[in-house]
Amino acid sequence: MSNLPRHVAIIMDGNGRWAQQQEQPRVKGHERGAEVIRDIVTFASRHEEISTLTLYAFSTENWKRPKVEVDFLMKLLNRYLKKELPIYLENNVRFCAIGDVSGFSGKLQKLIRETEEKTAHCTGLTQNLALNYGAKDEIVRAVNTLQAEGRVVTSESLNSALDTPQSVDLLIRTGGDHRLSNFLLWQAAYAELFFTRTLWPDFTSHELQSIIDRFKSVERRFGGL
Ligand code: FPP
To answer: pTM score, two decimals?
Structure first.
């Protein structure tokens, strides 16, 4: 039996280099990257085997970037959420933010919550957008939640206290680097990792499908024989 890519997670890297190649400012790469998100979410929503798609949009470390780039990403997120709501609804996609969104402005937090609420009834794909997300931060927050509730920390209780409990089947990183960059470290314990040199703004649903086809033929043993 072939593997099912139920939870696909993507590190969307390479926006800046794409823009440089086009002799454009870095932010143009982010703009194009946001358009690619739409294509990939739509594709995943029509792919019966995928139930969750988690995309890494802004890490806990991304605040270190120049203020003008961070400000641009915040504005882009604002624009993205407003523009994408009808697309989410049309494709029966439930939007969820993972990460510590309390780090964002009140206005952005409200928009994130509204997008979650307005798509909460959607039963197709769940699209997690990782925002002010870091896996170490997620695990620490989960442990603190359990402690505050007086619960014992076990693998199961910790898993359930995470922002997203579902284990990752297929983790893809675009942009040519081979690292996890503090993304879903717990959930990706047994994920199959695929790295592509394609820069995120050039990534297509066609390439995603070909990665899924390769993933399906991998033998997953989960520590067994
Ligand atoms: C990495 O490219 C990309 C990010 C910082 C996160 C991904 C952001 C987007 C896809 C666009 C914004 C999306 C939303 C929803 C607002 P990089 O800048 O690190 O590229 P580089 O490695 O070539 O410099």
So the answer is: 0.96
Q: Of 11, 13, 199, which is best to mutate to test ligand 1, by the most ligand atoms within 8 angstroms of its C-beta?
A: 13
Residues 64/72, Cβ–Cβ less than 8 Å? no
What are the sequence ranges of the domains in the chain?
Answer: 7-216
Report the b/e string of 11-40 with b at 16+ CB within 10 A: bbbbbbbbbeeeeeebbbbbbbbbebbeeb
7-216 maps to CATH 3.40.50.720:
no
> Which residues pair with residue 148 across a beta bridge?
none
Q: Decide if 133 contacts 139 (C-beta within 8 A).
A: no
Helix (H) or strand (E) holding 133: strand 126-133
What are the residue numbers of the active site?
13, 62
- For residue 19, which atom of ligand 1 is closest to its CA? 23
> Over the stretch 112-159, which tens digit does the pLDDT of each residue have?
999 999 999 999 999 999 999 999 999 999 999 999 999 999 999 999
Tell me the pLDDT tens digit for each residue of 158-190: 999 999 999 999 999 999 999 999 999 999 999
Task: Please state, in angstroms and rounded to a whole number, the distance separating the CA atoms of residues 191 and 74.
Answer: 30
